Amino acid sequence: MCKNLRIRTPWLIISPHFDDAVLSCGHLLAKNPGAVVATICGGIAAPGVPASTWWDRRSWKSARDATLGRRQEDFEALECLNAVQAFADVLDVTYRGHDDDASVFATAIGDILDRFDAEHIAIPLAARAHIDHELTRDGALTALRTRGLANVFFYADLPYFVGRDTDRIARALSAIPVPQAPAHDSENELKREAVTKYRSQTPLLRRSFRRSYNSIFSPDAERLYRYQPT
Questions:
Q1: Which helix (H) or strand (E) element contains residue 115?
Q2: What domain range is 54 assigned to?
Q3: Cβ atoms of 114 and 1 closer than 8 Å
Q4: What is the CATH number of the domain that holds 16?
Q5: Sequence-separated (6 or more) residues with CB below 8 Å from residue 65
Q6: Which pTM value belongs to this model?
Q7: Residue 1 domain-assigned (yes or no)
Q8: Mean pLDDT, the chain cut into blocks of 10 residues (230 residues total)
């Protein structure tokens, strides 16, 4: 793609699933209108595939309904934050099976990177959070190294990383903490409103992460780390 056809944006947030970027970077998005959130596991399941997890069965009649429904929820959430939706067509692990080929993620993320001219890029920290998070991080690092892109950051995946040693994990990935101003009340309210749009996910996240869920709305909950490869 010609460079002058790439879409400019202040931030490109690479998100494993619909909701991860808003949960982990909602304040950042509220501070930066026009940011792009690109969900990598944004593929649509084939017709006839049943909803296979209790999370999906709670809200959807089929896998296709679930994947299409999550796209719509994400669109509504990002609209609250004046952010732009993008996605790749990789299926999440629930529907692709345990096909853990990072090259698939690298190719999908490379295609996203080629569409946007981002001043800053953020990818998930991911360590032990979820296999799709790890594959997204590893695929993103491969795609970024190939393109030699700068101004790359890791974000702490919330609510997985609330109260965990993210600084140590970041150091192992050659990244250093970036001081951030705490979120203003207005930015926190925008994040809260956006999170409610994930109607199929929010009640289950609240149940699964009882101790840490509310912490994601703390003014200093979100953490960024600048990638400084040797």
A1: helix 102-115
A2: 8-227
A3: yes
A4: 3.40.50.10320
A5: 51
A6: 0.93
A7: no
A8: 75 97 98 98 93 85 94 98 97 83 93 97 86 95 93 94 80 93 96 96 85 89 93
